[in-house]
Amino acid sequence: MTAPLWRAADIIAATGGQPVGDGGWTATGVSIDSRTIRPGEIFAAIAGETHDGHDYVAAALAAGAAGAIVSRRPTGLADHARLIVVPDVLDALRHLGRAARARAAARIVAITGSVGKTGTKEALGLALAGQGETHASASSFNNHIGVPLTLARLPAAAAFGVFEIGMNHAGEIAPLVAMVRPHVAIVTTIEPVHLEFFPEAGLDGVAAAKAEIFSAGGGTAVLNRDNRYFHFLADAAQRSGFSRVIGFGSHPKAEARLVELHVGATHSQVSAVIDGRSFVFRIGTPGRHWAINALAVLAAAGALGADIGMAAAALAQLSPPKGRGKRHRIERPGGAFELIDDSYNASPASMRAAFEVLATAAPGPSGRRIAVLGDMLELGPDSTALHAGLASALVVARIDLVFTCGRYMAHLHDALPPEMRGAHVENSAQLAPLVAAAIRPGDVVTVKGSLGSRMAGIVEALLASGDTHNGNHDDPRRGPRRAANG
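RESULT FIELD:
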């Protein structure tokens, strides 16, 4: 039986809520989604722009919810329904998250960066799991709803907590990290992402916004030594009271330094020096970007007090999360093709990383390497140049055919050599059948674009075009906005 996470009395004390019905119950978890709630969890009825969680309280209770946090009593509920009434449900969730953090004995790490946050979070969670109970953000729960929800789910007995923190605008990270209060903070990298929200400061503004991860203080900052903002971030960390800065990357002065890398079609073999010790380990997914971020993972694990060797060995079991490089073998009449689903999001840096991974893929006889690309969004006035500038990386990666959709990807289509041009259309819905018809047995196909480009629809269409086999091993639903991307 799952141990209780919260007693009703503790939830009431943390939120200042008023109980309705029996107040002696316990909850095994916290949910904001009536579709996925599990028996024993408490349902937080957050009111968003398009959905109001109060409309789903009855469904949540019928599904076995232990109770619900509400700001008003929904109609049609039984008199004995277990409710905690608060002025504002989202604010109550924040209070519950702070209470969870206050009672926790776990060593806490917070992760931000322009790209690589979710993959690094997944890798660190895997690396720590064998050394103590580890609690980590689900999916990309990294915004003003996802972070307090993840905190509220933190078991008191956990040894480690791994939190992803994102942003679209300046000022969004500081209040989230004030709740998380990490011992270790990781910044994966600073790259051109969300530039349209920093029209004057540009990438410098993005770096300053990411530096908010240090604003609550902490012990160790783990920073990308290869990135040009390393010194800026290191200074910001030290000003906020961080006593140690660990650089990771291939830079000769990096404390977690890449020595040698062999990237195969399905894995990466890494030789590294971390804090003066040599390590050789395997990562269960290919790509230089995974190897570089693995150095951050191991540096952070060491700073949290975990055994680095055990953490490194665990990375052999790593597989990419859905939409971030997950592989599928799709059988169709005449032969199979391989699909690399990288459709969750995109930036110039992550596009180039995806091309490098596709370059290492091994097509079958007469197979081709095919990139299917949608617009990279929120790049501001440099969007045209940043899209067209991907052409050289595609050529270097020896990609055979490139399909594109969206107003900005039209500039990439025009910049490509004619023999590399597949179809270009207005949107992903128009592109999906063209790609499905063009694929031949032995092809390896990468699908990538910003979330708003809806490239996941192309992935779904390709998965439905044959029999699927995975090649590798709850977003917040009712909140006022989508999860942050950067």
